[in-house]
Specification:
The chain is an alpha+beta fold. It is built from 19 helices and 13 strands.
Length: 594
């Protein structure tokens, strides 16, 4: 068990510094507040204990006793908010599904409760009367300081319900155990050690916020304004989480902890410990190595079963793997709030479009990480939004996940025409290799098949000379050409007539911010790119007119939260000039190239 606890701790530590926890960091930082709690300056002193009244007729003039120094009480808000987050996350990850099912509540009730608590805490920071209401449940606790940390603890409970860390094998094992009701001593120990591991960096961040508030004079002299600003930030964060605005930011960031996570959580020792939490069915899958560079024989493909609903099939009918014999099947395990899954989807959709007529069938198995991802309406809405048109199975009980002994979101399994698993890949990456193996299996199934050109090149060829990802950020924009950017203020720019290779310029009115540029009147973007396809993340309502080398090619309708839009989709890579005319109010985040 000690090894299991160590794996959980290290996995939690890595998760807590990953891009997936960025949405909660500003709230954790601001949770510290002022470092001491003292009576207000100039306040009237009350009676001093033990000071008696003068005796009648004594003629003695009493000297007023010295007023005792204010008691300095150490602020424990950082500890309270992190404790609340850890307890809430641990409890509901393990028992949330069971409780929701037993009470007959909606699957996404915990998410809505978390959002409501975040909004209430924000209102409490803005309006003291609301904060006093939040602290009333703690009023019977005699310690005065504990009472004052009540709202911080409630904040932590709310964050724990909204905390969606990047899922690796450790969190996957915990989630599956909770969903299947297999809660053993080992699972509880793994859950608590993982939660403590994530808490350590978050606590350091919260304590840093407390120290800044104690040391920086502006925090002390403008405490009321800062509390209001923090409250507004929490309400804005709740709205961003509710409408998935934070997903676009997370997708744009590289998964810089992936290598460390794999080294710890997918090591031989971790596999041995975590596999002990499952049964011994379909052990033949253990013969194969994740991401092997050649096809292997990994045993017969387990059944897709325990599915609560099918999407994108005629009449919602289930798909039977046995009926697909003679075809090559790719099974993709994913869940819609997983940023890693969202990054891999463009490749899978492209393979479906390119190879379906050649005999490839893709099945998405949606295995939820959190309770709100079990709601069929949510999954159907996100499936449409992401442009997924191949069959999707809702594996709410994680039965198929268990059948395949899976440990990762996302995970891809390749099954040959005879129904044998020949390859699997956990996590992101190795897309060119996976596509090559798809092509090999299609050739084996039908030697006479005429395959279309590859959608991806080798990893080296894919990135060679290709325009790099370009952020529309006043601090991170690369290869910008044109008038100097003015931070967070509307300004009219002149779009250069000529741009260097990989260069970008803007014209018309724009407000250049850190996370995005917001279009104003006559807003335009020019980009001299070298790639096969061009994508952009946009939000708002309006339209974008696309011109390539001066010729209008399409009009993109933009609506809602930040979403990836395809602007150019050529058969071959080329160098070209892209010009966009953007409706006022639309926010542009970043360009990506393929």
């Amino acid at each position: 068990m000690l090894t299991l606890i160590l794996i959980g701790l290290l996995g939690g530590l890595i998760t807590a510094v990953s891009p997936c926890i960025l949405p909660v960091l500003p709230v954790v930082f601001l949770a510290g507040g002022p470092g001491t709690d003292t009576p207000p300056a100039g306040g009237r002193a009350g009676p001093v204990e033990g000071a008696g009244a003068p005796e009648a007729g004594s003629g003695t003039t009493l000297v007023a006793p010295e007023r005792p120094a204010p008691t300095r009480l150490r602020n424990r808000r950082p500890y309270a908010v992190v404790l609340g987050l850890v307890l809430s996350f641990s409890f509901f990850t393990l028992l949330g599904v069971t409780l929701i099912s037993a009470l007959g509540l909606p699957e996404d009730i915990l998410r809505y409760v978390g959002l409501a608590l975040l909004v209430m805490i924000g209102l409490g920071l803005i309006f003291p009367r609301v904060e006093s209401l939040l602290e009333k449940p703690f009023a019977r606790i005699p310690q005065r300081q504990v009472n004052k940390e009540g709202s911080a603890f409630v904040l932590g409970l709310g964050l724990g319900l909204l905390y969606v860390p990047c899922a690796g094998p450790v969190l996957a094992a915990i989630t599956v155990a909770g969903a299947r009701g297999r809660i053993s001593t080992d699972v509880v120990a793994l859950t608590l050690s993982f939660a403590i591991g994530t808490a350590v960096p978050l606590l350091v961040f919260a304590l840093a916020g407390r120290r800044v508030s104690e040391r920086v004079a502006a925090f002390r002299t403008r405490a009321r304004k800062l509390r209001i600003a923090a409250g507004v930030l929490m309400i804005v964060l709740a709205c961003a989480l509710a409408f998935d605005v934070t997903d676009a930011i997370q997708r744009a960031l590289p998964n810089y902890t992936a290598a460390a996570q794999r080294k710890v959580e997918d090591s031989d020792a971790a596999r041995q410990q975590l596999s002990g939490l499952y049964d011994n069915s379909n052990k033949e899958l253990a013969k194969c190595e994740d991401g092997a560079d050649a096809l292997r024989s990994c045993g017969k493909a387990p059944a897709i079963e325990g599915i609560s609903k099918w999407l994108n099939t005629p009449g919602g009918q289930p798909v039977d793997l046995k009926a697909l014999r003679g075809k090559v099947v790719l099974i993709d395990f994913w869940t819609y709030s997983c940023i890693n899954c969202q990054r891999s989807l463009p490749h899978i959709k492209e393979w479906n479009r390119t190879y379906k007529d050649a005999g490839l069938e893709i099945i998405g198995v949606h295995s939820p990480e959190f309770a709100f991802e079990k709601d069929a309406g949510n999954v159907a809405s996100q499936t449409r939004k992401m442009g997924i048109n191949y069959p999707v199975a809702l594996d709410n009980k994680l039965t198929t996940w268990d059948n395949y002994r899976n440990r990762f979101w996302p995970a891809k399994y390749l099954i040959d025409a005879d129904g044998t698993v020949r390859y699997f890949k956990f996590g992101e990456g190795k897309y060119a290799q996976t596509e090559d193996l798809i092509r090999d299996l299609l050739k084996q199934a039908d030697p006479a098949v005429a395959l279309p050109p590859r959608t991806t090149q080798s990893d080296d060829a894919l990135t060679k000379d290709r325009t790099p990802e370009t952020y529309l950020s006043n601090l991170r924009i690369r290869n910008y050409t044109g008038d100097p950017l003015e931070d967070d203020r509307a300004k009219t720019y002149r779009l250069p007539a000529a741009l260097p290779v990989n260069g970008i310029g803007i014209g018309g009115t724009w407000t250049a911010g850190y996370e995005h540029f917001t279009a104003g009147a006559d807003a335009r973007i020019g980009l001299n790119y070298r790639a096969k396809n061009v994508n952009v993340v946009l939000a708002g309502t309006g339209q974008v007119t696309v011109r390539v080398n001066g010729k209008e090619t399409r009009t993109v309708q933009v609506e809602g939260a930040p979403t990836l839009y395809r602007l150019v989709d050529d058969k071959d890579a080329r160098q070209a000039r892209l010009d966009l005319s953007v409706s006022p109010g639309i926010k542009a985040y970043s360009f990506t190239f393929g």
